[in-house]
């Protein structure tokens, strides 16, 4: 029996550790990703920017993720995201947008500006640094 005890105890400890770490990871309801095919399903559009100024878009980071999402952008039009993280209960503590070399921390309850110009059309996914477990979508036209 001591041999069996030497195997069971480490396995139980490993299983318990995995369960605890899993519970501390990202939290987001497992809902299917919204389909942005319909223009009415997209986020409300912000007014067009003045010539020479980027379009400003406010995004909140909540327990539901990045909101609103999806957001429609225009290829070649500069945008300024004003991101405010309002929860500490998810792993979305930054915004990562690999195609534009963006990895910006989002301190709790502090607006952070992130500027970029989408240079190709299509679906652009951004999210947290944990493999985008929590993510949002830009639809670039």
Residue-averaged pLDDT, rounded?
A: 80
Structural class: alpha/beta
The amount of helix comes to: 10-25%
Mass-distribution shape: elongated
E-strand count: 9
Order of adjacent strands in the largest pleated sheet:
2-1-4-7
Percent range for β-strand residues? 25-35%
Q: Which sheet architecture does the biggest sheet show?
A: 4 strands, mixed
How many helices? The count is 1
Radius of gyration: 20 Å
Distance between the termini: 67 Å
Low-confidence parts: 28-45
Q: What string, H for helix and E for strand, traces the elements in order?
A: HEEEEEEEEE
Summarize this structure as a short list of keywords or feature phrases.
single chain, 141 residues, three-stranded mixed β-sheet, alpha/beta, elongated, 1 helix, four-stranded mixed β-sheet
């Amino acid at each position: 029996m001591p041999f069996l005890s030497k195997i069971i105890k480490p396995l139980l400890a490993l299983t318990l550790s995995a369960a605890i770490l899993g519970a501390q990871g990202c939290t987001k309801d497992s809902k299917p990703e919204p389909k942005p095919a319909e223009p009415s399903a997209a986020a409300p559009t912000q007014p067009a920017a003045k010539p020479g100024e980027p379009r400003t878009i406010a995004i909140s980071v909540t327990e539901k993720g990045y909101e609103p999402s999806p957001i429609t952008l225009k290829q070649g039009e500069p945008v300024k995201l004003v991101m405010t993280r309002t929860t500490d209960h998810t792993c979305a503590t930054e915004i990562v947008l690999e195609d534009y070399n963006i990895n910006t921390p989002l301190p709790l309850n502090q607006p952070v500006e992130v500027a970029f110009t989408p240079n190709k059309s299509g679906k652009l996914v951004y999210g947290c640094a944990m493999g985008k477990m929590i993510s949002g979508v830009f639809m670039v036209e």
